[in-house]
Each structure stands twice: as C-alpha cells, then as structure tokens.
Amino acid sequence: MVYLITYVLPQVFYDEDGKSFLWSPEDAITGDIDSILPDSAPEALCRLRSALGGPHFLSLLQAFLTGSQVVLRGSPIKLLYCIAKALKFLVPKKCFQPVYNSEEYLSPSKSNLLVLGPHVAVPSLAASSGLYPDLKDMMPCSSTSTSLPSSAPSVFRIDVIPADASKEVGDNALGYWGGYRLVAKRGNISTSPKYPTLIVKIDKAVDNSALGPNALYCHLVSLKEEWINIAEVVSRVKRSRRYFSKGPFLGEFGSAVDEEAILLKSLGGQEPDWPLIWFWIYGFKKN
C-alpha cells in the first residue's frame, strides 16, 4: 500500500519596499481571498470603515495617526496586509514602522503596526491607556493635559476571524469583510470626545459615497500633504527660537505654548490636533 502525503508550503509575499515574508499554508489554499481585496488603499479604507463601523474606525485612526500601536491578528494574512497597506497610505513614511507575520508580540516601542498570525499570543488590552511613550516628553505641557483625551489608546487591536466563528466573540464582533469578520479589541478604553481635524476629514471622505475611487484617492493625498505641511511649519517655527521667548505674537508676556496655539489656529488646526502634529514631526522612534 502506498500513502501519498501532500505538503502545502508557505508562500513568499513581498511588501511595497521589496521586503519578503511568509504567509501561512491556510492562506495559500484560500482561493477566493483575492476576490475580496480592493485594488487601492482608499477602497480598502472604505471596506474597513464598513466592517468596523464609524466609531471604531475613528478610534482606529485616532490610535494610528497619533502614534499608538495597531495590531492586526488573524488569518488570512493577505487581508491583514491589505488593511496595513491602507493605513500606511494615511501617514508619512517616517510614521510607519511595520512588522509583518511576526512569531511573537512586539511592544509599541518596536513597531506601531504589527501583523500577527492567529496562533500568536497577545497581552490583554484591559490596562492599555495613555500616551505613546516617545511622544509624552515632546509635547507642550498644555497639550499633554488638555488636547489629548485621557482615553487615548496605546494599543488598538483588530482580530480577523472566519465568519462562522464570530458567535464566540459576542458583542465585540463587528461587520463582515467577505467571508471574514472583524473584531475590535480596545479593553476598557472609551472613544475620544473630540478627534483631530485630519481624522474627522478622513472619516467624512471615506464615508462619502459620492466620491469615486479616483476622487477619493486624490482627496486623501491632498489631506495628508496639507497636514504634513502644517507639521513642517510648526517644526520650523519651533526650531527657530527667535519666534518665541519674548512673545512676538502676544507681546512681552507671551509664552511659547500660547504662541504655538495661535500658530496652529492660524494654520486651520485646533487643540486636539497637537498629538497628531508632534507625532508627524518626530515620526516613529524605535527603541
């Protein structure tokens, strides 16, 4: 008697920078996964918002665009990578430090976008809260106390599970993406009372069905470029100390913090925008 044993080997997947990583055999035999993956990052954002719902999508943007860690866990990894690529589209390159298909959980100081298989153990999110560690000392005193909500998450996790397994996760299960369901894990973290301006504009654009794929792409690119420029202006003014200390805006008794607030307002920003701006100025600092 002859036994035939067939092995399905992991396949190599390449990210946009040419770096390779493996996806699991389960992904290799999932024949219909490509049919549910959008062709562009903006279209993937639309699918992601539809699956997560508005409040969770805003919380995800709040976490990722202000420097907190986003963990994508589950299978198929092609779908996780599609979500990761969509998030990358929204931030400057220096604010994106991904690790794909890691065999262990990495802390937020190592990666701000972590893609894990379903077998990888992750810590509980019940105690997750507070500022991204590297940003706390960079932000003005007034910003750390007033502009950033105390509920800002340090980790936001999305689990991707087969649709038929979603009964086990209860109320945490959100919408469907093809034959898979997304589960948001935020522990006891509440949503922000007021989001940064850019995050609100992105959410409105992604939710606007009147914008076609090309128009949405151009609009999101213009929004990102606008806030890259705003962050650059703030950075340049902050580096040029002659604009501060004696208060050229406010007079002799003006403070640097007050002048930064006036500068941001003149650029179209508001107080909740500071966490995003400081993260976009300094980028991800890997420890």
Automatic annotation (TrEMBL):
Pfam families: Folliculin_C. GO terms for biological process: positive regulation of TORC1 signaling. Residues 1-285 form the UDENN FLCN/SMCR8-type domain. One of its GO terms (molecular function) is GTPase activator activity. GO terms for cellular component: cytosol. This is UDENN FLCN/SMCR8-type domain-containing protein. It comes from Ladona fulva (Scarce chaser dragonfly). The lineage of its organism: Eukaryota, Metazoa, Ecdysozoa, Arthropoda, Hexapoda.
